[in-house]
Design a protein that fits this description.
The chain has 2 helices and 43 strands. It has a 43-stranded antiparallel sheet that branches. It has 652 residues and is mainly beta. Among the domains are: 40-149, lipopolysaccharide transport protein A fold (Sandwich); 489-650, lipopolysaccharide transport protein A fold. Strand 2 and strand 3 form a beta hairpin.
Length: 652
C-alpha cells in the first residue's frame, strides 16, 4: 500500500506539543524558578504588614542603579526610583523596580519589572507586586505579584499568572514552586495556546485544572480533566503526564490517562490548479485484496483507551510510538470511505524515523476490522495476539487451542491456532486445529465449489493447515482434511480448491461419504467413494477419483481404475456413480467382473457392462451383455443383446 504525503505521519499534530512544552515548561519553569533559587538566596517568609504601612523612614534612597557580581561571576543590575528601609527591617522599593540579570557567561538573560518590591536585609523574604513582568529570550511572564516564603521553601502566586511569547500564550490562577524538591504547581484554569509553526493559522490549546512539574525529573502532570485542541483535532483525558528529554526541552513521552480520547483530523489543504478527473473504474464489482482493505496509516484517526502513551524521537520531529492500554480502540478512516478498527487490551504502534510505520502489536482480545464502500462486509481478524509487520506488510495472529485466531471475509470464515497474512502477495497460512466455513459466493447458474455437495450452501472444513496462494488462486487444505456439507463428507491428506475456477483436487488417498435413505425405508445408509486422486470439474460438475478407485455401500464393494460421481441436475446430491476399468464387484457370496459399472443411487441398482460375469459360490457362474444388481432385494437381472431378453433372475 503506497503512502501519500497526507498519510505518512498519522500523528503529526501531536509532535507540535514538543514545541509548546519546550518553550512553556522548559523556559518558564527553569528560567523563572531557577532564578529565584539562585539569586534570592532563598530569603525568608514574607508577612503582609506592609499593606497599609506608613513607617517612620529610617533610610531613604532615591533613584539609584546598582551593579553587583556574585561569587559565580553572575552580573546583576538593580534599578529603582525609591528604596525605603522601614522600622520593621524590610526594604520597600517604590515607584518602579527593575532587575536585570545577565547570568554567567553564555547563560540566560533575565529582566524583572514591577511597580513595587519588598525584601529584608538578609534576603530571607521577597515580594514583587504591581504589574510584575519577567522577560527572558522572547518569553514574558506577567502577574500582579510574586512572593517567597523561606519557612515553606516556597515561591508562589495567588492572583493569576499569564505567559506569552511569539508562538504561545498561557495562564493559570495560582502557582507555587517548592525549592526543596524543585517542583512547581499551577492550579485553576491552567490554559496554554501555541502556534505550532510559523504561518500556522491554528493554535494548539491545552487546558486543565492543575499542573505539577518536577524539574530534576523533567516531568509534568496535568489533571482535573484535560482538554487538547488544534483546529479540527482534539483530545481529552482525566490526566496528562509529560516527560521531557534529558538536557533538552522537548517532549519525550506524553501520557493521556483515564478515559483518554484523541480525535485527529488533518486540516483541508487548498486546491492547487485544476483538479484531475477521476480515473474510470473497471466494469463489474471490484473486490479489493486484504492488503488494500486494511488501512494502518491515515490522516483521520480516533483513539480511545484507559491510557494513551505517545513517544517522540529526540532529534527529529516524528513520533516514535503510540501505546494504549485498557479498552483500546483505533479507528482509521479515509475520505474514500475506507475504514479500519483496531481493538485490544493493549495496542502498540512503532514508527521508524525514515521508513514510517514499523509495527503494530495488539494483545488481549485483539480485533482488526476493515471495510470500504465496495466491500461492506469487509475483513475481520480476531485473536489473543495480532502483530503487523509494516516493512514486510504481513500480519501474524496467534492464539491457542482454547483461544484460537479467527478470520472472516464475505466468502470464508477461518479459525486456527496461528494465521499469517501476506499482504504483498495477498496470501495467508493458517495452522493448528484449523476450522473453515466456505460460503458459496458464486452467482446463480455459475459453477461453485459447493456444487459437488449441495449448491448454494456453505462447506465446513477441518485440517491441520490451510494455505491460500493468490497467484495460483488456490486454497490448499493439508493434513487430515475433512470437508462436509449437510451429510456429505470429503476426506483426504490434501484437498485444493481453485478460487477462480472453483475446481477441486485431492491427492494421497481421497474419499467422499454421503448418506442414502433406502426406498423401503429404515435408517440412512452410508455410501463411500474414493481413490488415490480426486478431481472436480466445475463445468461438468463431475467429481472423479483415479488410481485404486472404489465404491462401498452397505452390501456392495466395487473396485476399479476410476470412479466418477455425477450429481443431480443443478448440482447437489450424487445421482449416478460410474466405475470404469477392471471393475470388480463383491456382494456377500458373489463376485462380479466387468469393464464398467453404473450405480443409480435413486433406483438402488448397479448395472455392469463390458463382458460382465458374476460368480455365485452357491449358484454358479452367469454371463450376459448386462448384469443389473437390485440392491433392495439382492436379485440380479441378466440381459443379452443377441437373444431375447433373458428371464434369468439370480435371487439372493
Amino acid at each position: 500500500m503506497s503512502r501519500s504525503p497526507r498519510t505518512r505521519h498519522p500523528l503529526r499534530w501531536i509532535r507540535r506539543l514538543q514545541i509548546f512544552f519546550a518553550l512553556g515548561l522548559g523556559v518558564v519553569l527553569v528560567v523563572i524558578f531557577g532564578y529565584f533559587l539562585t539569586h534570592l538566596n532563598r530569603p525568608g517568609g514574607l508577612q503582609s504588614s506592609e499593606q497599609g504601612f506608613t513607617p517612620q523612614k529610617i533610610e531613604v534612597q532615591e533613584s539609584a542603579t546598582h551593579l553587583e557580581f556574585d561569587s559565580g561571576r553572575s552580573r546583576r543590575g538593580i534599578k529603582f526610583n525609591k528604596r525605603v528601609l522601614g522600622p520593621d527591617g524590610l526594604y520597600y522599593f517604590k515607584g518602579g523596580f527593575e532587575m536585570d540579570d545577565h547570568g554567567k557567561k553564555g547563560g540566560r538573560e533575565i529582566r524583572i519589572i514591577s511597580d513595587e518590591a519588598v525584601t529584608d536585609k538578609d534576603q530571607t523574604m521577597a515580594r514583587f507586586s504591581g504589574n510584575v513582568s519577567i522577560f527572558s529570550k522572547g518569553l514574558t511572564l506577567q502577574a500582579d505579584s510574586f512572593a517567597y516564603d523561606k519557612s515553606r521553601e516556597l515561591i508562589f502566586n495567588e492572583t493569576g499568572v499569564t505567559m506569552r511569547s511569539e508562538r504561545f500564550t498561557g495562564s493559570a490562577r495560582t502557582y507555587a514552586y517548592s525549592l526543596e524538591d524543585e517542583t512547581a504547581v499551577l492550579e485553576g484554569d491552567v490554559n496554554f495556546s501555541i502556534r505550532p509553526q510559523i504561518g500556522d493559522s491554528q493554535f494548539l490549546t491545552i487546558k486543565g485544572r492543575r499542573m505539577v512539574f518536577n524539574y530534576p525529573q523533567r516531568r509534568a502532570h496535568i489533571d482535573g480533566g484535560v482538554d487538547l485542541r488544534h483546529g479540527r483535532s482534539r483530545g481529552t483525558a482525566e490526566a496528562v503526564e509529560i516527560q521531557l528529554f534529558e538536557g533538552r526541552d522537548y517532549i519525550h513521552l506524553l501520557w493521556l490517562m483515564g478515559r483518554a480520547l484523541l480525535i485527529m483530523r488533518e486540516e483541508p489543504k487548498p486546491a492547487k490548479g485544476r483538479a484531475k478527473p477521476a480515473e474510470p473504474k473497471p466494469a463489474g464489482p471490484a473486490v479489493p485484496s486484504d492488503g488494500s482493505l486494511f488501512l494502518f496509516e491515515s490522516s483521520d484517526q480516533d483513539i480511545t483507551a484507559d491510557q494513551i502513551l505517545i513517544a517522540a524521537f529526540e532529534n527529529i520531529r516524528r513520533i516514535r510510538g503510540v501505546r494504549t492500554r485498557g479498552g483500546s480502540l483505533f479507528v482509521l478512516s479515509s475520505a474514500e470511505g475506507q475504514s479500519t478498527r483496531i481493538e485490544g487490551q493493549t495496542v502498540n504502534f512503532v514508527f521508524d524515523p525514515v521508513r514510517g510505520l514499523e509495527a503494530i502489536d495488539v494483545r488481549g482480545a485483539g480485533r482488526l476490522r476493515a471495510v470500504n464502500k465496495d466491500v461492506p462486509a469487509g475483513r475481520l481478524i480476531e485473536g489473543p495476539i495480532i502483530l503487523y509487520d509494516g516493512f514486510n506488510r504481513m500480519i501474524r495472529a496467534g492464539g491457542s487451542e482454547q483461544a484460537p485466531v479467527h478470520s472472516k471475509s464475505e466468502s470464508r470464515d477461518i479459525s486456527a491456532e496461528k494465521i499469517v497474512f501476506y499482504f504483498q502477495n495477498n496470501s495467508f497460512d493458517a495452522w493448528g486445529g484449523v476450522k473453515a466455513v466456505l460460503e458459496d459466493a458464486s452467482a446463480p447458474g455459475t459453477a461453485s465449489a459447493g456444487a459437488f455437495f449441495a449448491s448454494g450452501k456453505p462447506i465446513f472444513g477441518r485440517s491441520r493447515l490451510i494455505r491460500y496462494i493468490d497467484a495460483q488462486h488456490e486454497l490448499r487444505f493439508t493434513d487430515n482434511v475433512r470437508l462436509w456439507q449437510d451429510k456429505q463428507v470429503l476426506l483426504g491428506p490434501e484437498i485444493i480448491i481453485n478460487k477462480e475456477t472453483q475446481a477441486m483436487a485431492g491427492t494421497g488417498g481421497v474419499k467422499t461419504q454421503f448418506s442414502h435413505t433406502p426406498k423401503a425405508g429404515g435408517p440412512d445408509e452410508r455410501v463411500e467413494v474414493g481413490g488415490d486422486r480426486m478431481d472436480y470439474d466445475p463445468k461438468t460438475r463431475v467429481v472423479g477419483f483415479s488410481g485404486n478407485g472404489y465404491l462401498r455401500t452397505k452390501d456392495v464393494d466395487i473396485k476399479s481404475e476410476t470412479v466418477s460421481i455425477v450429481p443431480e441436475a443443478g448440482g447437489g446430491r450424487p445421482r449416478l456413480i460410474q466405475a470404469r476399468g477392471s471393475v470388480v464387484l463383491t456382494q456377500k457370496t458373489r463376485e462380479a467382473r466387468s469393464e464398467a459399472a453404473d450405480y443409480d443411487v435413486g433406483q438402488e441398482t448397479i448395472v455392469l457392462t463390458g463382458h460382465p460375469v458374476v460368480v455365485d459360490k452357491q449358484k454358479g457362474t452367469f454371463r450376459g451383455d448386462k448384469l443389473t444388481f437390485h440392491l433392495a432385494d439382492g436379485n440380479i437381472q441378466v440381459d443379452n443383446r443377441d437373444q431375447q431378453r433373458s428371464d434369468v433372475v439370480i435371487k439372493s
